[in-house]
């Protein structure tokens, strides 16, 4: 009897855990947004045969101070059935594309960290309308052009790290209005 209970108990636990981790999936429009973002960045290895919020199959990889390959989601929406992307952290991933224009299609995105890649081109002024952003790091890429004043619209931004790129021009005075900023690094 006890044995039977243990067996049934185990089956129950396995079923429920499986449902908990696999039940929620990324919102469809965000899957499309990630496909487009991956293409623009030159990201290899994102396997859309699996849910990007599965935390497996290369979507959340081992990360260290220098290396990271993670898409992090919040899956608590609609009674834990819908996920939204909250972080994209791709450090030292050999990305050699450009920055995507369409972060707006990830309305819950709080952090984008593309540290130490080979990204070139400019920071799109459109990033200034992704108002959920709290943290941006583009440290150590090949970005050029002016730092857009539109970034001053990111009222919740606490960290903006743009060091070691090839930016030119003057720093927009508007950035002085970022009232929550704690870290602002621009050396090049
Ligand atoms: C949320 O999900 C739980 C477990 O699946 C279910 O029991 C509950 O009725 C759901 N609540 C709503 C508001 O749908
Ligand atoms: C990046 O390229 C270097 C040199 O080719 C390679 O050793 C490294 O494994 C690559 N890193 C990733 C994450 O692909
Ligand atoms: C970015 O680099 C690619 C090749 O690596 C080059 O073709 C392109 O012109 C560069 N773009 C800019 C804006 O520098
Ligand atoms: C900014 O942060 C506050 C407090 O955490 C939050 O209520 C608000 O929704 C955030 N604004 C945006 C645009 O995400
Ligand atoms: C900063 O914000 C204040 C109040 O919103 C505004 O009057 C001022 O013009 C802004 N300064 C800059 C440089 O954008």
Automatic annotation (TrEMBL):
Annotated keywords: Signal
A Gene Ontology cellular-component term: membrane
Subcellular localization: Membrane
Record bears the keyword Signal: yes
Principal location class: membrane
Membrane topology: Single-pass type I membrane protein
Domain of life per record: Eukaryota
Signal peptide: 1-23
Protein name according to UniProt: Leucine-rich repeat-containing N-terminal plant-type domain-containing protein
Organism: Gossypium mustelinum (Cotton)
């Amino acid at each position: 009897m006890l044995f039977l209970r243990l067996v049934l108990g185990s089956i129950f636990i396995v079923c429920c855990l499986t449902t908990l981790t696999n039940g929620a999936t990324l919102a469809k429009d965000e899957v499309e947004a990630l496909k487009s973002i991956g293409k623009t960045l030159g990201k290899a290895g994102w396997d859309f045969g699996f849910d990007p919020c599965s935390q497996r199959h290369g979507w959340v990889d081992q990360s260290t101070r220098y290396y990271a390959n993670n898409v992090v989601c919040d899956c608590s929406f609609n009674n834990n059935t819908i996920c939204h992307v909250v972080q994209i952290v791709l450090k030292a991933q050999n990305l050699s594309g450009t920055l995507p224009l369409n972060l707006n299609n990830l309305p819950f995105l709080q952090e984008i960290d593309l540290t130490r890649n080979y990204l070139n081109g400019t920071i799109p002024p459109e990033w200034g309308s992704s108002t959920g952003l709290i943290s941006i790091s583009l440290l150590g890429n090949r970005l050029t052009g002016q730092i857009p004043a539109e970034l001053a619209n990111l009222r919740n931004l606490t960290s903006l790290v743009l060091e070691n790129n090839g930016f030119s021009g003057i720093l927009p005075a508007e950035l002085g209005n970022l009232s929550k900023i704690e870290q602002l690094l621009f050396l090049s």
